[in-house]
Amino acid sequence: MSSREENFLNTLKQLSQSDQNTLMAFAEFLLIRSGQIQIQIDEQETSITRAVPSPEDIPRPEKESVVIAIKRLSATYPMISKQTMLNKISPLMSQHIMEGRDANEVIDDLEEIFRKRYEEIVAGD
Length: 125
Description:
By secondary structure, this protein is mainly alpha-helical. The protein has helices at residues 3-14, 17-34, 66-76, 82-99, 103-123; strands spanning 37-41, 46-50. The chain has a two-stranded antiparallel sheet. Helix 3 (66-76) packs parallel to helix 5 (103-123) and helix 4 runs antiparallel to helix 5 (103-123). The radius of gyration is 19 Å and the shape is elongated.
């Protein structure tokens, strides 16, 4: 967890329950405004669902470095937090740089990791 996230959580814990609810409502408003959440209203029930955008269509170049591939995949999947991917990406970078693992194999694994994370997000995980 980043220091910014820790600071936010510490601040949140200091607020009253009412103020925490207000902050949550405002955060949901910002998500709705940005298009990341959609509100579906029917006569029986009101629900808020997270709208996960589709990945960008950025084709893989014939020759690509691992670093450029990470940048491409980050742009392809902007809905994926780079912080959450760091633990999965770092070992692959190390394998490539320190152990000499083939760049194409590492990039194949990176693409799979990003695709799986996207599918987890779509599934609501």
